[in-house]
Fold this sequence. Notes:
By secondary structure, chain A is α/β, with parallel strands linked by helices.
Amino acid sequence: MNDKTFEPKIIAFCCHFCAYASADLAGSMRLQYPSGVRIIRTPCTGRLEVDYYMRAFEKGADGVLVAGCLEGGCHYIEGNLFAKKRVSAIRDILQESGIEKERLRMVNISAAMATNLVDAINDMVNIVKELGPNPIYKPSNGPEIEFNEFETLNSHK
Amino acid sequence: MIVAQRKKIPEIFDAIQEHKSVLVLGCGTCVTVCLAGGEREVSIISSALRIASRKANKKIKVNEFTIERQCDNVFIESASEEIKKNDAVISLGCGAGVQAIAERFPDTPVYAGLNTAFLGILESRGVWTEKCMQCGECVLSDFGGICPVTRCAKHMLNGPCGGSREDRCEINADQPCAWQLIYKRLKTIDQLDKIAKQHPMKDWSKSIDGGSRTIIREDHRI
């Protein structure tokens, strides 16, 4: 499980107003973070539906990092506080489903905190490396999930 | 509104182990409003079940569908095709919805995905409280619109019991004393004389104690 070559796939949902800007700053500052981290820009962490997190794990992410503004500093006043509560609830659902809750984590980063973002990413990568790959991706389950089978049959009537 | 709560994922997953494909069926009415069984919750629970299924090395196909109302045959009909495509249904409707689906599709196993809790209202965001226990003989007019049957822990029709402390119930200090609320309310609306009225013992045969209830309206029957 804890293969040394294991490079975790981490989805980092970054708020446009803070963490995304700090990721940009990290680039300008030539700070390095592991290449398995995929940054997705969101208008606000409060915009992230529960579904987004669940689908990320379902489709193979080894970890999900949510990076929002510092508490009290949300561009939309309290979007990051909603996200905090939501992340806490989803961690419970993940645990019930059989995925370690440590794989999902929220951090608060301001636009100027590039080093903190990189530290948070490195922390996350280390935690996920300890845990090993996403447990629903066992070799016995085949190399890839057939995504089509997961598409919704139909939407709301 | 009927208020329900999601069952834990392992409990739902245990029920569907033997099936190859299941349909998670949401309901667009009460359980959508109480954030337990609407389209969004269908999606979340389905995702969780797929994850649990992969984790357990099972290949259970989990499909999703939501209809407007599970307690009405007209709406159930719109899910008929999807239900027939699957081995079993996990209904995210209230208890009535689950049973309506089970009656309409006698050959398909139906499992409950929610615990139906009570008839209540949205008190504030994320907080639902019980307001009615459907006793079958409403007494709200006598009590200023506050139900002693539901909201008094002792269901007292001739209260108060005398055990409340600082307006809180002695059984559960988180709850206000219903009789205190009734007193204040009757005083406000100038009907305090009603509190002196003696109420005879309640006829519980009109409640669930008399078995499940049926209402027949001959004027509406075909």
